[in-house]
Amino acid sequence: MTEELMHFVDGVRVKGTSGRFGDVFNPATGEVTKRAPLASADEVRKAIASSAAALPGWAATPPAKRAQVMFNFRDLLHKHMDELAELVSQEHGKTLDDAKGSVTRGLEVVEFACGIPHLLKGDYSASVAGGVDSFNTRQPVGVCAGITPFNFPAMVPMWMFPMALACGNTFILKPSERDPSCGVRLAELMFEAGLPEGCLNVINGDKEAVDTLLTDPGVGAISFVGSTAIGRYIYETGAAHGKRVQALCGAKNHMIIMPDADIDQAVDATIGAAYGSAGERCMAVSVAVAVGDEAADAFVKQLAPRVQSLKVGPYTDASAEMGPVITRESKERIERYIGEGLADGAELVVDGRGISLQGYENGYFVGGTLFDRVTTEMSIYKDEIFGPVLVVVRAESYDEAKQMVIDHEYGNGAAIFTRDGDTARNFTQDVNIGMVGVNVPIPVPVAYHSFGGWKASLFGDHSIHGMEGVRFYTKLKTVTARWPSGIKEGAVFNFHSGSDTGH
Ligand code: NAD
What is the DSSP letter of 354? Predict the structure, then answer.
């Protein structure tokens, strides 16, 4: 029997009324396990109205009280960690360890949000002019919305709503329709933690729901995480409707291996960074640029048997290192890219196509895949494949390798493996990339720093969580105050320089 999922509005689960549904699959078996309601514009507008009604009360709640709700939520996340990880694995397919790791990364943002009274503290300048003081304050934007991708169904929503709520906004989450269950479950836990009803609503849906959030005047800010084509559309449409938008998008993360790098360490790092979560991470390493044939030969020689022996399986198999990819279309797309790489003349060192697991013949499994001698005009180099495929490009010099990073369309993450401090420093200074690693393959910033790329990996002005999260979810107000007792006789009230307004 297929379970029918619901939306979550005004503190309760509500049935979808549009009559449209999206199937949710178990990617390990290919079976439909649940169906998610796809909201109509009308249903979304009801959620916006609910969030708007809850806004004044929540915005006026002292930050320390809002923080208390976050502390309670943090405790509940610990208590429900196994349940949430299982939900992630069931619908996404990733291993339980990986799923737990992702919930933990979301939880760390909640911990950061617990410090909101401190984070919202403004600056104060006494006597900017005679008897005049100036201070600033950060106020909530209003009703905010989050549109999230399939690959981190718990973590990415938690990059958004804890920060938005802590800052005094109300929030509407539109989770990925591929693995929607975590969204509603997290919202329920927020209410158990003490969040008033209407402050966090969850609407399941597709383009119709998203378009309503993008165009409705009741929504003040949109956070999006997903693919570049959709992110560009979200940014342009949201901005055209007067909204603040941050859209975090696709990636092609390069890892440069210098001739002096510790190859053992680089190979170890690559296994997790390229193949963990079946490569379905926006910070996955998908290109290794080896400088010099000696480094390239050693790297490929050591890596190949490790990739070949990666164990693929369902999350219920505790020994599996990699789960299936999310959909049949994804599997087909990845396998098509592997075919293109071969046709373009790249050397296929490990081929992950055509995997069939006993008892899981209809699952969307792709094995670890490794290409060598890839060149920059090939589609397997240029495009985000979003699967367990690593391409090795050989460069003759550091400058050539660095230029590849600079010239690539995407700018999410990049890493360099070297023992040389000068080279590492030059790399970190020169590349046009948002998150850079030195001997760290996936340089994902911790919650109190901010996450975000450059170039086609982010549209908008703000990265996510950390202080950038506070800036995105608040509007800055600066007050300049003079009290009558501070006004000297004969004070000048214009803006001439030297006047006592100081400007
Ligand atoms: P996606 O762009 O297909 O979907 C993301 C969201 O957009 C979903 O909620 C979906 O319902 C919605 N959407 C899809 N099509 C739409 C349309 N035509 N109009 C309006 N809304 C639409 O992305 P995905 O496949 O779920 O996720 C994978 C992508 O996300 C990859 O490109 C990956 O790199 C990226 N990603 C980026 C980051 C980052 O921080 N930069 C993090 C995670 C994932």
Answer: T
